[in-house]
């Protein structure tokens, strides 16, 4: 296989694709405006990381927890088919990014070693390596970004150092052209169990992450200044127990950050952004119960409007929220405990979500057009957050607003 992106245009490569990936023909169901289908059945499908290339093809890395495998799925938009291959063994917690050639790069936990690995497609084969890091145990989420020149940068949660001492802090490892360089992003214990790294248009690295230890629990943000990491506490400073999970970061066309995260204490999904000098945060929706260790999804449409996907583990619902005229419009995407560790992306006028079904153990996808909002299935009601009118975040004034909620609860 010479070029993954060329799969979209060369039907003659179907035989080669079948031999490399193995073809999975989908039977998709339409729920309202959402098209929902199974990518890979009965294998767990956790920690999916989705990217859409410039041709409209979908790339997904995910964990096959049944067989402890890292798998990769490719959807050819011209054939409307998924192709699946096993890349390596893994403990889970993978992250995928596409390079300038639209080739996939993946960070993931190594199987049985407590280490971290990196794999990428070079146009012909998968290249894999275990990154040599002096640590006994790396656990939970990894995240990958590519700087100019397609140089990988990976954030991870160092659980134990080489001597077995609990470190519980966020570090990053970067390929600098000849070797891997390891740096500590935030030495505060508990920082980085949930982390998301992005490179902006200039190649500057940004990380959104949560600190999960009670005394320092908070939402944090770090920026690489060329010599060290500058760390900000966006929410939770001086308020022990303000635990923030499931943080996911995206940058807009003007290199402004947008973060989706879960406020565990208040059981709400939140959104943070920095349109100017100050951060602003707002509530998106409430949860019956948060998933663990879950991940939210976030992407921006062509106009820069945020779309956020999240899983209500108590209600068993996958939801998506997007802003309309300053309000959050919330809709149910899937039910019956499907939606764990979801990932969201937008290409043109189509939004995609990949996620695990906790009941069937399938890796699933959902997609729909975002040209118009789907029709209300019952009624529209206004939800007012049950928060003090004058509440403030550590980043600035908490923005009160009314959100429109689609009254589409399970019967």
SSE layout and pairings?
Elements: H1 14-20, E1 23-24, E2 29-31, E3 34-40, E4 44-52, E5 58-64, E6 69-76, E7 81-89, E8 92-98, E9 104-109, E10 116-121, E11 126-131, E12 135-147, E13 151-161, E14 166-175, E15 180-186, E16 191-199, E17 205-211, E18 218-224, E19 229-235, E20 244-251, E21 257-263, E22 268-273, E23 280-286, E24 297-300, E25 306-312, E26 317-324, E27 327-334, E28 338-347, E29 350-357, E30 363-369, E31 380-384, E32 392-393, E33 396-397, E34 402-406
Q: What tags apply to this protein structure?
A:
single chain; 411 residues; mainly beta; Neuraminidase; six-stranded mixed β-sheet; five-stranded antiparallel β-sheet; 2% helix; disordered N terminus; disordered C terminus
